[in-house]
Structures are given as structure tokens and as C-alpha cells.
Amino acid sequence: xxxxxxxIHFSRIESFIHTxxxxxxxxxxxxxxxxxxxxxxxxxxxxxxxxxxxAWGFPDTTSPNPMGLDLESSVPPLVAxxxxxxxxxLEQNGASELEKIExxxxxxxxxxxxxxxxxxxxxxxxxxxxxxxxxxxxxxxTVVIHGxxxxxxxxxxxxxxxxxxxxxxxxxxxxxxxxAHLGDPWVMDxxxxxxxxxxxxxxxxxxxxxxxxxxxxxxxxxxxxxxxMQALEYTELxxxxxxxxxxxxxxxxxxxxxxxxxxxxxxHEDVFFRNAINVFPRLGDFLETIASTT
Length: 294
Ligand SMILES: [Zn+2]
Prior knowledge:
Strand content: 5-15%
Radius of gyration: 17 Å
Bound molecules: zinc ion
CATH class: Alpha Beta
Number of helices: 11
Number of strands: 8
Low-confidence stretches: none
CATH architecture: Alpha-Beta Barrel
Strand order of the largest sheet: 1-2-3-4-5-6-7-8
Largest sheet: 8 strands, parallel
């Protein structure tokens, strides 16, 4: 089975480097990514743009727009990108920030926009983001929104609750929105928003920040598995969920096995591959480009 990993990271963020070294025990580098992803059968991945200006700084209010993938001087060719938005800078400098974002959009590896709800203290429907959603509308970009629990205790959870996406989805009907992490722990709330809105989807990344052996034991924990399965089953819409690993916050192959346990087998092809192509309109062209150059 071919796999697209719709949510990974490739940014120089101190908490990710620390997690890779101390918790998930993996090689967080281009070389490490290429080895791990080829062993897992991943043909393409989408990196969520993110930067910090000083170690442990994220969510950093001074990061320039758009935030990209800055772990190394170049990004592995199989990795596409969602441009990360810093709303604080956008609010301060408006037009010039927007110009910088629009300037990057023509790149063949740009699939969408990433909004860090919760990390930055703005609701996703806040006016500050409207010009960005209009850009998404104009350029066929998908908007990925952080949902649920945050990886920083400086964040505010009220902004990352998935219910806020409902209002946004109704206002921008022609934009595809992806709620990251199924909005965990509010997975049933996410299910409600996904079920109701044809333009809202969810990725299944980041449920566990754990090494191989811990993932293995969690797969045997019925309460953990039921929590996620219930939300998917409620919608019965397996065309609306996308595989993502949140690498380096989990080793990719064990995480694939974990998600396979949550998703009924007849929907694996959709969740692990096809849905991503439907949800990210630019992904088909990107896949063709990387296939022709490798
Ligand atoms: Zn992530």
C-alpha cells in the first residue's frame, strides 16, 4: 500500500529535537527521515511550517511569515509544505506580511496553510486570519488547523477547541479545512464538525508521543483505542480522515500500525493515500513532480 503522511514536522524546534532524542529515539534529520519513510512505504509527506527565533521559543511571536521547514538547508524531495502563519506579525504588519505569504504560494511544494490555534491566542475565525483564508480560496490551498491538546503549556486550549472550526467552515465554504489530531481529546466534537460540514476533514496524527514499545502496548489498551474509533465510527465518513504521524513525535512505522488498528481495513486505501489527494488539491501535481525526478 502506498502511503501519504499528511502531517509531519521538519523545523528546528527545540522541543521536537528534545523529543526525538529523549522520548521517541529517532534520527530527526533529512537522512533519518528518508530512511524511516522509505522503510515504511511513504511516498510523500506534508510538513507543517513552523519556526522559532530562539530555543524553546515556540509559539514565538516574532517569527516572520510564512513559517517554513528550516531543520536543514534543504528539505527532502518527498516533503511538501503547509506555510505556517504567525498571526501576531500579521496583525502588526498586515499588507507586507501578506505579500510575503503570497510570494511563496507559487512554489510547487506548497499544499496549504497551517494555523496554530491554541499556540497563538486567536480563534480561527478571528478577522486577523481572513486575508489568509482568501488567499487559500484564490490559490486552491488547504488550511490545516491545530486542534485539541497542545505541545506547549504556554498555549491556551480554548482557542484550539474543534468547535471553533464550525463557524469558519460556514463562512469559507469553498476552502478545505483539516482539523489536526482529530482535535484530541475532543474527538467527538471534531466528529460532529466533520460530519456536518462537507469542507471539514481531520488528520489522525499526534495521538501518541511515544517510542515504539510504548505504542505497541497502547495498541492493546481498549480504552485508548475505543476513544478514537468511536469518533470515526460516529461519522461513518472514512473519506474524510487522513493518515498523519506528527513525526518526529512518533516513529512512523509503529504509528502506521497503530492507525491501521483504528481504521477498518476496507478504508485503509482511502485514509492512508487517496483522501489526502482529494483534500489537498495541489498534491496530485506534487506527486507527479517527485515521481518524475526520482
Ligand atoms: Zn504537528
